[in-house]
Amino acid sequence: MVGAAHESTIDRDGDRISPMRDVGLVNKHIGTSLDENLLRHFFSTVVSHLTWLDDGACNPWRTLIQPLVQKSGCLRQSISGLAAAHLSATSLDNAQSSFFRQINHHIRNDTLKTLSYRMRLELCANTITLRKNSSNLSLLEMLACTLVLCYSELHIPSSTDWGLHLRACRAMVERCYLRSRRELPQDALSRFLIKEVADLETFGNLAGFKNPESTGMGLDWGSFLNANFWTFTALINEITSTERLHSEHLDGGHNLIEPDMKGWHDKLEEAYKRATGMVTSLPECDVIQSMFRTVIDAHYYATLVYSYQCLAPHAKHTKALEEYCDIIWHIVQSVTQSSYTAFIHDVFFPLFIVGTQCATDRERQSHVELAFLQSMSATGFWCNQTALQMLRLFWKHSNQSGNETWIQFARRNEAAIGPFVIF
Fold first, then answer.
1. Which of 31, 87, 190, 362 would be a feasible disulfide site paired with 185, CB 3.0-4.6 Å?
2. Do residues 199 and 212 both lie within one domain?
3. 423 close to 200: Cβ distance less than 8 angstroms
4. Do 279 and 289 contact (CB within 8 A), yes or no?
5. How many angstroms separate the CA atoms of 55 and 95, rounded?
6. Can you give the residue range of the structural domain that contains 112?
7. Does one domain contain both 173 and 284?
8. 88 and 214 both lie in a single domain
């Protein structure tokens, strides 16, 4: 086949192209072919794992980001890198995994150089001319590239660089906010990208190391997280913010009034109702619709448990929370053990919550650990490895921690645990 291709390849002057002589041209052709395959892999496979429910052609990654790729070489480059990271993270062949890891590393470095240059232009735009040429689209393009870099790092085992990229995303969001004179952006692309950043901010701050309610400029994440059917994330963000506020008040010597959990139950019921509205966008297949409903159930109970862990961590609730976790665990098992793998990326948060409630149950711990490893291998989201490590430390020290919650434990051991994200 190689010989046939060589014989039939003619350059513009009618001379045959030699793979040995025209190395640069051949490498360029191979690079272009690889780039196209990586882009195809991203939009056909990877984007399905970046949303709770992949609704085909309506997926924002396809409707909003794919058209932008045609205009932005930097975004095209970063997306190719993310596709390579996913292939490296999910490949069972060591040589193939290593190959794509090198591709990702090379593309990431090139993308960072391009972004660094573009950011310097953006931040150093001191003249009227530069400010005029520095359009919002350019800033959104850089935000999209940086967000994609963040997602790439979520596929790299033990990497914490996702946090660096997320901070850069936050800075760009704040710059967009300042540009719009502190008005919330209304265009679909801006709202989608900011919502993605808010998602990562929420699940990268479950232990409440910082107040997640807003950016430094006061831009409220909730308005973006509440703008779609899946509002569990918005509720989790609000719960984390409230817990953080309570913790600061206690540290300051203030007394706290027992929270009204009924109000949180009502919010959770509303989130559940909105999430079930997503089922109608699925194909009319009993198996698919049934499985996604169970995923919604898992997030309902996981968010419920999280709310009590954060806001009412009393021993009197322990039995009920353990019963909820039994329900979550059975759902997680049904998803991870199914031959239909479309929703396996949706189980990490519920699975993590189960792990936080089994500090004294060695058998459940081993099952949770195995489910984490299987799910990471299937999805490529090895960022969850750090969260699993946090659980292992919590389990190990549970006998010494008394009634300390996992949130208090994580906060007290922040320096040793480091940043972790559930995704």
1. 190
2. no
3. yes
4. yes
5. 34
6. 1-203
7. no
8. no
* Number of alpha helices (DSSP H) and beta strands (DSSP E) in the chain: 20, 0
Distance (Å, rounded) from C-alpha 221 to C-alpha 213? 6
- Residue 47 sits in the same domain as residue 142: yes
In terms of DSSP H, where are the helices of 16-93?
Answer: 23-44, 60, 66-69, 73-90
Report angle CA 46, 48, 52 to the nearest 5 degrees: 135
Radius of gyration of the chain (CA): 24
263/173 same-domain check: no
Q: How many CA atoms lie within 13 A of 228 on its CB side?
A: 21
Instruction: Look at residue 188 and tell me whether its pLDDT is greater than 80.
Output: yes
Measuring CA to CA, how many Å separate 422 from each of 13, 162, 370, 400? 57, 12, 16, 26
Q: Is 402 left (phi over 0), alpha (psi -120 to 50) or beta?
A: left
Range 48-59 average pLDDT = 93
Rounded Cα distance between 169 and 291, Å, is 33
Single out the residue of 266, 188, 273, 276 nearest to residue 227, CA to CA.
188
Residue whose entry in the numeric block shows the structure tokens 């322990």: 318
DSSP class of 135: -
Q: Are residues 153 and 277 in the same domain?
A: no
Measured in whole angstroms, the distance separating CA 183 from the mean position of its chain's CA atoms is 26
Tokens of 155: 């596929």
pLDDT digits (tens, 9 = 90+) for 352-362: 999 999 999 99
Q: Which of 171, 203, 235 is at the close of a domain?
A: 203
Phi, psi of 257 (to 5 degrees): -80, 140
Output the six-digit token pair for 351. Answer: 């699975």
Domain boundary residue among 153, 176, 203? Answer: 203
Supply the pLDDT for residue 286: 78
Query: Does the pLDDT at position 5 exceed 50?
Result: no
DSSP assignment of 226-289 equals TTSS--HHHHHHHHHHHHHHHHHHHHTT---PPP-HHHHHHHHHHHHHHHHGGGGGS-S-HHHH
Residue 272 in contact with residue 294, Cβ under 8 Å? no
Regarding whether 250 and 159 lie in a shared domain, the answer is no
pTM value is 0.88
In the beta sheet, which residues pair with residue 10? 16
pLDDT at 124 over 90: no
How far, in Å, are 159, 267, 423 from residue 329 at the CA level? Answer: 28, 23, 17
Does residue 244 share a domain with residue 185? no
- Total domain count, the chain: 2
